[in-house]
Each structure stands twice: as C-alpha cells, then as structure tokens.
Amino acid sequence: MTWMAGGLGLFGSFALYLAGALMAGCAGLWTWRFGESARPGNRAIVIACALMVAWCAASVALAPDDALTRLAETARNCALIAVIFRLFAADGRDASLKPIRPVIIALVLVQLFQPVLLLVSAQVGEVERLVQVVFEVSTVLSMLVAIGALVLLHNLYAGAAAPSRQVIRWSAAGLAGIFAYDLNFYTIAYLGGEYPAMLVAARGLVAGAMSVLLALGAHAASAGRQISPSRAVTFQTLSLIVIGSYLLVMVTVTRSLALLGGDLARTGQLIFLVIAAIAALAWLPSQRLRGWLRVTATKHLFQHRYDYREEWLRFTRTIGQGSGVKSGASLHERAVKALADITDSPAGLLLMPNEEAQLELTARWNWATLEVPPDMGDGTLAGLLEQNALILDLDEARSGIEHCGEIAHVPRWLVDAEDAWALVPLIHFDRLVGTIVLARPRTERRLDWEDFDLLRVVGQQLASYLAEQAGQQALMDASRFDEFNRRIAFVMHDIKNLASQLSLLSANAQKHADNPDFRADMLVTLRSASDKLNTLLARLGRYGPAQGQPVCETDLAGIARNIAERFKPLHPVTCTADEQVTVLADRDALEQALIHLVQNAVDASANGQPVFLTVTRDALTGQIDVIDSGTGMAPEYVRSSLFKPFVSSKQGGFGIGAFEAREMIKAMGGRLTVESREGVGTRFGIALPVPEAARLAARTQNTPHEKVA
Predict the structure, then answer these.
(1) Neighbours of 423 (CB within 10 A)
(2) Does residue 163 sit in the same domain as residue 241?
(3) Which residue, 284, 301, 318, sits at the end of a domain?
(4) Is the pLDDT of residue 320 over 90?
(5) Beta 573-576 vs 611-617: how paired, if at all?
(6) What angle do CA 418, 419, 420 make, to 5 degrees?
(7) What tens digit of pLDDT does each residue of 227-251 get?
(8) Domain containing residue 585
(9) Which pLDDT band, with edges at 50, 70 and 90, does 3 fall under?
(10) Is residue 37, in this structure, part of any structural domain at all?
(11) Nearest to 438, CA basis, from 503, 520, 354, 351
C-alpha cells in the first residue's frame, strides 16, 4: 500500500509531521515542568507526548508505513490508553470501577497484535492477496482500538462528578480528538482499500495539536480555562458553514448529474445552477434567514441568549446618538430604538402618561403605519404596570392569559395590532415614566425569562434617562420664568425709583408751589421722569444676562452735574467737579447706574442731609464717588448681601439697585467699589478707563515684545 500518493506531496507531509513533533514535544516539556505532580495522568501524558514525538520523527525520517513507525504508533496508542485509565482516578474511580480494567487490558492486547501483523506482512512478501488481508485486519484492529477508546472516554466524562469534569475535560477532549481522527482515517482506508494520502499527511499535525490539549489538562489554572469565542465570530463561522454547505451541495449535485452523460445531463446541470443561484439571491441576503441563524445559534451554542457586554455597548452607543441612529433623533426615539435592538424588533412606540395618568403617544420609531388613537382610556393600565413592574406579553393577552387583571384594561387597538409584541414599562423610583411597545421580531419566537430580566433592567435605565431629561427641561423652564421675573423686578425697581422721585416732588409742591424757581425745577423733573419712563421701555430688552455694551468718550463731570440737577428738587445733591474728566463708557447705562446709587444714598440719608458726587482722575482711570452720611452698612452685609439680587435692607426694597449698577459698570470695563461704616455713612466709587489708557493698552497688545539682550 502506498501512503504518500498525491496529497500534499512529500515536503508538505514532512512539514506537518515536524510541526506535530514540535507541538507534542512542547506539550510534554510543559507538562513535565509545570504540571501538578498530584494530578492523575500527568506522568502518563509526558510518556505519551514523548512517544508521539518519536512516532512523528519516525514518519519524517523513515516513512509513515515503515515497520518502525508502526511500532512507534503502537507504543503511542498504548500510552494514550494508559492516560485514559489514569484519568479515571480524578474522582477515585480507578479503585471502584473494576470492570474498566478488563476493557483496558483488551484494548492493549488488540493494539499489541499490530506487531504480529507486521511480522506476518514481512513473511508473505509480494503475495498481493495476503497483503490485502493483512491490511484489512490491521485497519479493523485499529478501528476497534479507536472505538473502544472513545467508549471509555464517553464513560469517563459522562460518569464524572461536576468538579471532576473541570479537571479532565481538556485531557478528554485531546484524547477524543486523536482517536476520533484515527477512527475516521482507518474507516476510509478500509472502505477505499488504501490509506488516504491527505489524511496521512495531516495525522502528525492533528496529533500534535491534540497533545496541546492534553498539556492544558495537566495544570489546575489551565484546566479551568474556557474557550469562549465571541458571538460575532460564531455567527460568521456559522454563516461560512452554511455557504460552504451550499457550495458543496451544488458541486455534488452537478457532478452527479454529469454521470448521466449526454444532453440530459448538461440540461439538468444548467437548470439546477439557475435554481440554486435564484435561491441564493433570495435567501442569503434575507434578514429573516439571518435572524433564524442567529436565534438557532444562540439557542444551541450559548448558555445565555444575550451577549450582555455587546448589548450594553450597543445600548449606550444608541442613547449617546452614535452610529446607526439617524441625525437629529430625539432622546425619545433613541430610547425606543435602544430597547427594540435588544429583541431585534423592527419598530416601536413610546407612550407616556399625561396629567390624568393616561398613556399618550410620545414618539415613534419605524412604525408610521400603526394608528394610535388619542383616547386610550383611563389610567388603570398605567397603574397596574407601575405597581407590578409588569412586562406585558401581548400574545398572552390575546390568548386570555393574565397576571394581575390587566387584560380588561389593555387598549383594543393594541390587541388588534398583530405586529404589537410586548409592552415594556419604564419605571424610575417606583414611578411609571413611560411604556415602550415593541413590534414583533422578524423571526417568530416567544418571550422567555431572559428577555423579561434584560428588558426590565434596560427599561429602568431608560426611565432614569427620560426622568433626567424631564428634570432638565423643568429646570430650563424654571430658569426662563426666573429670567422673566428678574426682568420684571428690574422694571419695578426703576418704576419704584421714579415713584419715589414723584412722591418727593408732590410733597415739596405743597410747600413751594408759589416759588417760580421751584415750578421751573418741577417741570424739569417731570420731563426727566417722562424721559426716564420712555428710556425704561426701550431698555426692557436689555435686562437679563450681561451683554457687551458699546462705549464712547463720555464727560464724567457733565453726567455728575446732570444727576445732581435731577435730584435737586427732591433732595440736596452736591456735585464737586472742578475739571472735565473724559472716560470710556455707555452714557445711558452710566446714568442709570448713578441714579441707582444716588437714590440708595438719598434713601439712607436723613431729610436735608446732603449727598455728594465727587469726580477725580488719575493716570489711567476717571472716578466718580457717591458719598452720603447716612446709616451705613455692616461689613458682613457689604461682603455677603449688598450685591446679591433680591436681598435688601430697606423696607419694601427689591435689592437689585446695587447689583444692577455693578453689572452695568462691569459691562463697560469699569469697577465698582464700596466703603461703609454703620452710623457714619457710605462711599460708592465708580472707576472707568480713560481713552489714553485704552489706546496705550491696545498699542501694547499689538506691539511684539522686544528680546532682552
């Protein structure tokens, strides 16, 4: 018999046997160096690996069918049978399972009969008939040894306790791989009358790879390892198997039709190829077929239906508006998609309770065809979902199965929609935030406990996101109302100042109505109040957050004199401005700030007690001080409350005059300072940049710094 006819060729076969010898040698050395001495079978594994190296080396140096190679194979198999027997000691069964020993002895005797056949083969010489008989007897004996070893391995693993299986599983897998390959090899050889060249060439590599598994079982840490391919790899492998099977069927059928010969064979081949191509185009791209493959693989290959790590990563990407989410999708739409992706549902709805606890449609995802009525009944269903955290299987509801009396309250439109599959409540701190209706997956299946657990957890997470968004929206609305109230407060403050001025004017008019000078000042004050009201109406849009204001060169002393003239009919205000001081400021805003500060000084001063406006200048700034001799303020109040909005020490005050003045001064690039002592008085100082300082600063910024030598 010729072992190496065709196949990979002589060089390829030698390379595979050398690789097998290398792997077996490394496995034996690792077991001898790192294997646990108390672990059963480790010494036998070292011996088996050594004999496997000798067998592979003999196959390379001599030939796979050489007598010495066959003797090395016999020794290898006897060592492997010894490993099987020693593995029964993993839970003490080497002493209790006495019937195993006769089987082991029988297998060894059958294996030892191979050298006898070698002698017989050498004696018969060139008698072809006898050589064929020896070949058939040898292959049958080898098949019996492989079958017996596989039966022993089955009994070994099936009868082992759970802890023992953890110990022996890798070693049992390696032994099963070796003997299963040999059984297949010798069966094909017996049926074909010769050894298959391709399988002969690969024997060394397969044996070496299986010896690595034997070494893994020699140490507790490595024996506990799990080979857990990712689901993506598993599904891709399954898809390749399906495609490969499809191509294999095509080749087999076309070759079978070719045996018929003639035109009928060619016509049959053409028809079959057309049908197969149409079937491939129709089914391979089908989402339903991919879904079926995914469900089938998950059911039979994995302990759990879901890869929780991948599901969580996809969930966070969807909620974070990552890939796969259309641009501009709202959080509500993303929430529906994130939950639907878990169950491979093609569409979904988000229903949220209104003020009367009635569920209302809030968002859709890929479900534009479903008609959702505006009136969904009372809030009883929402209450049941909230109290029981019930995930409603709509197929159960249609068949009359209920858990907490919910069937009578399920909306009719939801029951009639055959595509509606499940209703998942979104509960946050025992409060129903919303519910998501999932469409039926493309691959028909029923909800199970794992679906319920995962949907319930994800529903709680989505509920927290939706509740957080609702809280943020409420804060934004409150902020808008606060801004509106703040604007009104500023307006009321300005009107209050005008009302105070007009009240003082009215009180003084009763005493000095006959004085022509007073009447002239009164007309000026009334005109000023009117202008102030018009300016106030024009400035309403400028209240609120601080905005940049245009500044220009402004006469600070002139503004101080105008303010003093305005208050002259109301209260003594004296301006001490000896020189013209020009600053960069917004004139209207500066006047408004000064009016606030002067009005506060007037309110803090006794009748007839003057308020002073003092204008000065230094090299970089111009300053105007508002000084009174009134009640003064405590340092704690100045530090913590003076510039805090809506905190006031005056009866009926709004507490925003000083705050608004400071914000206006800051917007112009100035600075507002304050000094006050209780019982002595207060000084507010406004410092604004002069034009020369601004031009110098601009020139400094635009001029590059010179290098210092």
Answers:
(1) 24
(2) no
(3) 301
(4) no
(5) parallel
(6) 90
(7) 455 555 555 555 566 665 655 566 5
(8) 546-696
(9) very low
(10) yes
(11) 351
Entry pTM: 0.44
Beta bridge mates, 621: 689
> What is the spatial distance between Cα 636 and Cα 642, in angstroms, rounded to a whole number?
9
478-489 pLDDT tens trace: 776 676 676 676
511 is a domain residue: no
Instruction: Give residue 423's pLDDT.
Output: 92
Tokens coding 660: 């608004």
Measured between alpha carbons, how far is 612 from 594 in angstroms, rounded to an integer?
12
Q: Which is it for strands 582-585 and 552-555: parallel, antiparallel or unpaired?
A: antiparallel
40 in any annotated domain: yes
**Number of domains comprising the chain:** 3
Whether residue 283 sits in one domain with residue 139: no
**How many alpha carbons fall within 13 Å on the CB side of residue 353?**
22
User: Does residue 83 contact residue 171 with C-beta atoms inside 8 Å?
Assistant: yes
User: Does one domain contain both 219 and 239?
Assistant: no
> Helices in 62-161 by DSSP H: which ranges?
67-87, 93-96, 100-124, 128-158
Neighbours of 412 (CB within 10 A): 10
The DSSP-derived string for 569-620 is TTS-EEEE--S--EEEE-HHHHHHHHHHHHHHHHHHSPTT--EEEEEEE-SS
Neighbours of 61 (CB within 10 A): 12
Query: Any idea which residue has 């994800």 for tokens?
Result: 458
Q: Are residues 142 and 220 in the same domain?
A: yes
Name beta bridge partners: 63.
none
Please tell me whether residues 134 and 263 are part of one structural domain. Answer: no
What CATH number does residue 587 fall under? Answer: 3.30.565.10
| Cα–Cα separations (whole angstroms), residue 591 to 498, 554, 661 | 14, 11, 10
Residues 134, 277 within the same domain: no
Number of residues that make up the chain? 709
Shared-domain flag, residues 195 and 237: no
Which residue, 530, 598, 596, is CA-closest to 570? 598
CA separation for the pair 14, 6 (Å, rounded): 14
105 and 203 share a domain?
Answer: yes
DSSP state of 348: E
Domain-ending residue, one of 241, 269, 301: 301
Three-state SS letters, 219-235: CHHHHCCCCCCCHHHHH
**Signed CA dihedral, 309, 313, 316, 318: sign only:** negative
The full DSSP string for 488-513 is: HHHHHHHHHHHHHHHHHHHHHHHHHT
Max Cα–Cα distance, the chain, nearest Å: 157
For residue 708, give the 3-state DSSP assignment: coil
Selection from 230-239, 288-297, 364-373, 515-524 with the highest mean pLDDT: 364-373
Q: Please give the Cα distance from 502 to 514 (Å, whole number).
A: 18
* Residue-averaged pLDDT of the chain: 78
The phi and psi torsions of 88 (rounded to 5 degrees) equal -65, -15
Cα gap 157→166, rounded to integer Å: 10
CA distance 618 to 203: 100
Among candidate residues 406, 405, 391, 408, the one with its CA nearest the CA of residue 446: 391
pLDDT in tens, 67-89: 888 888 889 889 888 888 887 76
| Structure tokens, 421 | 């599959």
